Amino acid sequence: MNVLIVGSGGREHALAWKISKSSRVDKIYCAPGNAGIEEYAECVPIGVLDFPALTAFAREKEIGLTVIGMDDPLVAGVVDAFEAEGLRVFGPSKAAAILEGSKAFSKDLMKKYNIPTAGYENFEDADKALTYLETVDFPIVLKADGLALGKGVLICNSLEEAQAGVKEIMLDKKFGNAGNQMVIEEFLTGREVSVLSFVDGNTVRIMTSAQDHKRAGDGDTGLNTGGMGTFSPSPFYTEEVDEFCQKYIYQATVDAMRAEDRTFKGIIFFGLMLTEKGPKVLEYNARFGDPEAQVVIPRMKNDIVDVMEACIDGRLSEISLEFEDNAAVCVVLASDGYPVKYEKGFLIDGLDTVKAKEEEGYYVFHAGTKKTDKGIVTNGGRVLGVTAKGADLKTARANAYKAAEWVNFENKYMRHDIGKAIDEA
Length: 425
Description:
Layout: E1 2-7, H1 10-19, E2 27-32, E3 42-43, H2 51-60, E4 63-68, H3 71-76, H4 78-84, E5 89-90, H5 94-101, H6 103-112, E6 120-123, H7 126-133, E7 140-144, E8 153-156, H8 159-171, E9 182-186, E10 191-200, E11 204-212, E12 215-217, E13 221-224, E14 229-232, H9 239-259, E15 265-275, E16 278-285, H10 293-296, H11 304-313, E17 327-335, H12 351-355, E18 362-366, E19 369-372, E20 375-378, E21 382-390, H13 393-404, E22 412-413, H14 420-424
Parallel strand pairs: 1-2, 1-4, 2-3, 4-5
Antiparallel strand pairs: 6-9, 7-8, 7-9, 10-11, 10-15, 11-14, 12-13, 14-17, 15-16, 17-21, 17-22, 18-21, 19-20
């Protein structure tokens, strides 16, 4: 079949790489794609929110499966647009994607169905939010309700910080309409773990665990970003944790969405905090995480097209997911100044060095890149994800940082402590 991938980041590059290995795929297209994806797919200049153009293209090219990588089109209803045209598409409907599209919705869902999460209150009025802040203990967490490129979460250590945060989100609209509503949430402490899963509406099959590093600076300092690196598996995700989550979180969430007449098919990303009182849900995403996909997908043994089709057809119970018995670490190479202000257009050197070592477990997934006459140049805040495997996490981490030095561009910036928690496990 022909496959269309919708998106342009490192996650979509990892998906294109994996889908290209399927014996069932003839040709891959990606809209709009990036310079790295071009190795596996024909990139077409169609915006991810241009649903009429996307569906028309899918019909014209006889696309047998469309894979939606990004949150924006999912929340806006791209799956509904494809299904209305009789086209096969992998991802949740608009009604189901609200699980990520509205933090207020997801918190209310968890409360209603007794899915463990932090205590919270939802606010549509800034004055009421400010009054409420005078009654809480600090630190406290402020969350813009809608999509904010993974950056709409503020951890506030004092009343003054929190008051400034409410102003930033609800009044100054730093995150646009995502801040029309806001969640004020109890601050949880513990180890964070990310668990991706395939879902067919009834059955949930979890993938291997991972852990993201959201802050821009070493030691988890600086501003929130889309993600500066990740590792898989998490040594903190034990059999005991898995048993609890399978029973009280994963299946409970899928059943809750079905009970709300929002049957979920696609990917649910469970962002968890392993607290002293047990695992609790920090957030849901309705698609592969980025950069979590860059460490989870390379370890996956299954033909990913088979799994996606089983989700669409409600046959996921027939699938057993298999992952390599190893580890992977991804280090994001960003443009200095990200996530605030940075320059673009710098020539990238060393990509071929990593590519030549793919058989040894080294990968480079493009995020913000562009092909020009002089070569591939930087074209975003997060530029590349350098991923490496190893027999264990420490080896994978050493390999990833070694490979990160093979790639260079002016303004290159990275964290140097991705996976450092491994050393403390």
